[in-house]
């Protein structure tokens, strides 16, 4: 059972997220918080596998709450809930190591997919979040959109064929175990490939590598969910 905490200052958003998660037999919402401080305290108490945090909350925002959670309970993966117009916050959270990013108005299945991916140690970017990150980077002086995509393809081309396969699956939100099964190799081999491709791409975490995969256009098809 995947234990989940929800934190959002809007009761209707919390109710909506809880209702979606309640449709999955393998997910259990163990706590809810209305602000970042409450989220950190409840994560300490319940130690969920995943914390779903609003990226902007009063008092302590989702980004700072995620940092405290990673320090206090590193086994809890963090998914950020965001809306359109919060691109700068997304980039801050991406740089801070958040494992998942979802649009509040996205499809319910994306929430279930993201929670399962992050619980399994993977990174998950909603396709719309990934598209906005790429476009925002281009709009803020980090290169034109076409230039970033070309540069990402060049970076990916420098990887080995197996590293490219792993990156495509990582970008789709698969965990190391799922990637291992898809590629018919042992999980330790996947871990080694992930470590190598992070270094060769010059990124710090799986979520940042997923952005490169989206920029390069090599996302693998999603496997069917249980």
From TrEMBL:
Domain Response regulatory per the UniProt entry, residue ranges: 3-119
Keywords carried by this UniProt record: DNA-binding, Phosphoprotein, Transcription, Transcription regulation
Transmembrane intervals: none
Alphabetical list of Gene3D superfamilies matching this protein: 3.40.50.2300
SUPFAM superfamilies found in the cross-reference section: C-terminal effector domain of the bipartite response regulators (SSF46894), CheY-like (SSF52172)
Coiled coil: none
Span of domain HTH luxR-type: 152-217
The keyword rRNA-binding appears for this protein: no
Source domain of life: Bacteria
Lineage: Bacteria, Bacillati, Actinomycetota, Actinomycetes, Kitasatosporales
Organism of provenance: Streptomyces lividans 1326
UniProt protein name: DNA-binding response regulator, LuxR family
Swiss-Prot/TrEMBL GO biological process terms: phosphorelay signal transduction system; regulation of DNA-templated transcription
Molecular function as annotated in GO: DNA binding
Residue list for modification 4-aspartylphosphate: 54
SMART domains for this protein: HTH_LUXR, REC
């Amino acid at each position: 059972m995947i234990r989940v905490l929800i934190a959002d200052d809007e009761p209707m958003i919390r109710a909506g997220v809880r209702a979606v998660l309640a449709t999955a037999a393998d997910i259990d919402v163990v706590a809810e918080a209305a602000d970042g401080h409450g989220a950190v305290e409840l994560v300490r108490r319940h130690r969920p596998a995943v914390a779903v945090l609003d990226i902007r909350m009063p008092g302590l925002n989702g980004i700072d709450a995620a940092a405290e959670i990673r320090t206090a309970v590193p086994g809890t993966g963090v998914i950020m809930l965001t809306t359109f117009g919060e691109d700068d916050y997304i980039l801050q959270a991406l740089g801070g190591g958040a494992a998942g990013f979802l649009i509040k108005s996205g499809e319910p299945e994306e929430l279930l997919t993201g929670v399962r991916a992050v619980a399994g140690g993977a990174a998950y970017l909603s396709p719309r979040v990934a598209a906005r990150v790429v476009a925002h980077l281009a709009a803020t002086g980090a290169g034109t959109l076409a230039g970033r995509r070309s540069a990402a393809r060049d970076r990916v081309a420098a990887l080995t064929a197996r590293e490219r396969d792993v990156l495509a699956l990582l970008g789709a939100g698969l965990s190391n175990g799922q990637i291992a099964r898809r590629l018919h190799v042992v999980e330790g081999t996947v871990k080694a490939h992930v470590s190598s491709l992070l270094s060769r791409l010059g990124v710090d975490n799986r979520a940042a590598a997923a952005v490169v995969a989206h920029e390069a256009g090599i996302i693998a098809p999603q496997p069917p969910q249980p």
